[in-house]
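Exam prep: given the inputs below (a chain plus S-adenosyl-L-homocysteine), describe the expected output before reading on.
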Amino acid sequence: MRGEAITAGMTTDPVPWRATVLTLYPEMFPGPLGLSLSGDALARGAWDLEARNIRAHGIGRHRSVDDTPAGGGAGMVLRCDVLAAAIDAAAPADDPRPRLLMSPRGRPLTQGRVRALAEGPGLIAVCGRFEGVDERVIAARGLEEVSIGDYVLSGGEMAALVLLDACVRLLPGTMGKMASGEEESFEGGLLEYPHYTRPREWEGRAIPEVLNGGNHGAIARWRRAEAERLTAERRPDLIAARGRES
Ligand code: SAH
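Solution:
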């Protein structure tokens, strides 16, 4: 029985984590994700990235994708019919992947959300441009608005790159020999403890003595205390959130 299962596992390629990005600038992908750990993982087929041009679904000879805002005001708005056509062509209704709209109005991205996304089948990321997208497409296509922070970018592409980078580094095998990520910032609701490496002394600054001692219990306690100190100092909101969860 056991042998059979192993044989089956070896003959079937695992389904890669699959990302589809809808954008007016597909040339921006994979961009930086084609390098380093994410690039190696992409080349290995551990994940898959498809960037699709929203303009392929534009209207008329000029493949127009935007129009002036209803009610007046500055800028242009991405049309709901164009965006819906792009989404429908990229993902059939039964595609299990979450559909995310990069948006400064969205729920701020967290490591917890990233981890959940990385554990799923992949994602579809819609990149806005101009003033944003016609509100109606958000409900009509079940888009979850995701923000990467309280500042405004000129388009959703960089936000999608950030989101994808955060997810891909968590895919099995992607981080190589690096830690599983369990002790990293935000895991367990704390910022990470400080790191040091050689030289042991540099410009009059020494590595904290406990780290040179090889006493793993003491090192773990020191790291924990440092993580708590840094978090209390810099991100009291994280400490408050931990209190609420437990
Ligand atoms: N007028 C909009 C901003 C549009 S910025 C507003 O005030 O809310 C153009 C596009 O950039 C957005 O549609 C979105 O896709 C992307 N974008 C900008 N800031 C972002 C952020 N902080 N997080 C995620 N996407 C963002």
